[in-house]
Amino acid sequence: MMMMKSLICLSLILLPLVYVVEGGLLGGAKPIKDLSDPNVVAVAKYAIEEHNKQSKENLVFVKVVEGTTQVVSGTKYDMKIAAKNGGGQIKNYEAVVVEKLWLRSKSLESFKAV
Asked: Where in the sequence is the signal peptide annotated (predicted)?
């Protein structure tokens, strides 16, 4: 009986730790499941708008091709975005955006053609 109680106590301690280590809370990158989710699209459009301001280009959002999210000091979006340039050619770009909902802010960390 004592052994069973010890086993139950050990399980109650280890199960939450396994959840945390397996990516529940430690910030492991997770694939974006719904690439057409309005929030994901808004973040991608923000990345293109910020890039256009910084580079004086005129890229136009087409779609999110793939991406991951990771909880760091906010939500980090690492995305591949298809965008159309001024000549109508569609290219893929890699963008990293950090969104801090509690501050209602986003920042473009990087943006490059791939």
From this structure: 1-23
